[in-house]
Amino acid sequence: MNANKAEELVSKGREFLEKGDFRAAEKAFAAALEEDDATPVRNNLALAVFMAGEPRRALEILEPYLDPEKEDAGANPFTYALAARVHCSLGQEEQARRRLQQAVRSFEKGLSELRQSLGRVPYAFREYTVTIMLAAADLGDHRQVFELYRRWESYHVSWENKFLAAVACFNLGRYKRAATLWSSIAQVSRLFSGMQQVAFLVERGVIPPFEVSYERYSQEKMQEMMEEATASEEARRRYAQDGFFRMMLLAWLLEGDSSKNAAQGVYTMVYYGGEWGEKLGRQVLEYPGFSPSLKIAAVEALTARGILREGEPVPMFIDGERRLVEIKKTPVLMEPDQELDQIVDRAIKLRDEGKIDEAVELLQGIYREGKFYPRAMMTLANLLRRKGDLDDALNIMEMLEEIDPDNPVFLFNLSSLMLEMGEIEKAREYFDRIDDPEFEEEFAEKLKMLEREIERYENVALLPQMIMQAYEEDERRKIEEKPLPVDASLARGLKNMPAHWLEGACIYYGLEPARQRRQREEQLRDFLSRRDNLEKEVGELEEEERELLKYLLQRGGWSRLNAVTRKFGSLEGDGFFWHEREPESFLGFLWSLGLVMVGKATLEGRRVKIATIPLELRQPLKEILGI
Questions:
Q1: Measured between alpha carbons, how far is 269 from 278 in angstroms, rounded to an integer?
Q2: What is the distance between the alpha carbons of residues 391 and 413, in angstroms, rounded to a whole number?
Q3: Phi and psi of 456, rounded to 5°?
Q4: pTM above 0.70, yes or no
Q5: Maximum CA pair distance of the chain?
């Protein structure tokens, strides 16, 4: 038996698992099992095979540990929980529930034994709570998922526990608790902030209740689903029934996106969402928080379903009040029309004479007659811009873009309007979409002028940002210059940290920041002095952050800063207002949590910058990290 080689293979296998390469993970774990037939290795091999879509073979791998006649066959809580998930995937619900019960009993027994023998519960054992909760989730037993979360709340080491508990609460109708749980892991993914908002709106009755699956789709998977839904009606119909897909779309819409894609998302959910979709459509019309473009999308979907009748006034809350709005389908006249061109020419003449209101009224008359003539609408939009009615002008231009999204004239005018409205990024986006190398000289010159204007605004917009960035970097460097002994205590290190860093650390750890700075320091000292808290937080760090801690611990707990930054990256660009935006570097993030401190120490008569782990945290971190 070669335990070291087995350990290396297991480490590789876990890396492949995290990347989703289950076949490569299977090969690594199979090779490790040949070196060391240990329970964790066999469990990991079975997991890789299960994730690769072979549940029966996964069960065969676990069977040596599942012999009912052998109490000490080698199974641990993970073994039973994984077996429960496998049985569930095979439709064997009774066996799945029995294995889940075994997993729970095995975990409870292990807790008792470990507390008696070690006085604590190791991180690796506490990780089993995720798999056990997943087994209950696979069975759709929302109540048990949440009960397991509450029963073992002090032992959880992963944000996944809170995610699973939040889904369970959402599906049980406990929307406030779901929102609170998603809020507590918002730093993990921006999506969870959106899910929190969805839960609040379901609680308020704005969004109809629906059920969410426990499976999380990756960004790549969601993008793939969106593309498939765009291309296939069958896919749109299927995904509109998918709870997590609904949740993702709703979270996205609540970010305030009023684009054509967002309107298409509302249309898809309302049109293909069955009874739930109808309820959603009516709520979109009633709730003030949805934009007019999303309300129109809801009306169009409800009309296409035959729930509303075309031309019939629809009650909706719009522009701050409840109104009856009549939605009409106006035909688009793409062919040149001599009579309409004469009206447009007359409006242009009125414009040149300074009679803007008369010109606007003339062109609006064409639209009121039920005719959408692009030349007339483009002229109308530009007249509205001159009057300062920018929102009305934008509505018209967006309709024109929808008719002909690649038209360079429409894109040019949209870019100009966005610039006028102060939307510099959107102005650049529309400008960059203009693509025709054979423009007439006059239009080409207008394009050059517009690009120069966009660049000028971009430079002006960037200047305050650049000044602010320079200020933040300078303020952080001042903190780096503060005196700090190489063997500084946690209390000493926290005294160097600005008050808002302490506030940010408290919030990250789930503590309500005290009003006074001294009290915040005490909160953080008390929190990090508890072994279970420290173990949990270290378990949620990135691998590189744990490696940085190991690097310092292997060197007595501290190192010169230049040696650390050469290996793990510098603090440059991390800013200063860490309560608003977390630092991006590994060192900065650890510093923001009080796990590592940076300052200047006197070494051999010279003051040099160091990175150091607080003295009282070194030994527990060594034990947690296995050093």
A1: 9
A2: 14
A3: -65, -45
A4: no
A5: 99
Pairing of strands 321-325, 606-612: unpaired
Q: Which of 192, 191, 190, 196 is nearest to 178 (CA)?
A: 196
Q: Express each pLDDT in 27-80 by its tens digit.
A: 988 888 888 888 888 888 999 999 999 999 999 999 888 876 555 667 899 999
Give 609's strand partners.
Answer: 600
Label residue 492 exposed, middle or buried (CB < 10 Å: 0-12, 13-18, 19+).
Answer: middle
CA geometry: angle 154, 156, 161, nearest 5 deg: 125
For residues 275 and 272, what is the distance between their CA atoms, to the nearest angstrom?
A: 9
Pairing of strands 558-560, 321-325: unpaired
**Is the CB of residue 541 less than 8 Å from the CB of residue 624?**
no
Report the distance separating Cα 232 and Cα 64, nearest Å.
46
Q: What per-residue string of b and e applies to 241-272 under the rule 16 or more CB within 10 Å gives b?
A: ebbbbbbbbbbbbbeeeeeeebbbbbbbbbbb
Residues in contact with 7: Cβ distance below 8 Å, sequence separation at least 6, in sequence order: 32
What span, in angstroms and rounded, lies between the C-alpha atoms of 202 and 173?
A: 9
Helical (H) or strand (E) element with 316? strand 314-318
Q: Which amino acid is at 400?
A: L
Strand 597-603 vs strand 321-325: parallel, antiparallel, or unpaired?
unpaired
Band of residue 329 on the pLDDT scale cut at 50, 70, 90: low
pLDDT in tens, 93-107: 999 999 999 999 999
In a 10 Å sphere around its CB, with 0-12 CB exposed, 13-18 middle and 19+ buried, how is residue 19 labelled? exposed
Residues 562-582: pLDDT tens digits? 999 999 989 988 888 887 778
Report d(CA 132, CA 112) in Å as an integer.
17
Per-residue pLDDT reduced to its tens digit, 485-516: 999 999 999 999 999 999 889 888 888 888 88
Residue 374: partners with Cβ closer than 8 Å, 6 or more residues away: 332, 333, 334, 400, 403, 404
Q: Considering only CA atoms, which of 484, 470, 471 is closest in space to residue 613? A: 484
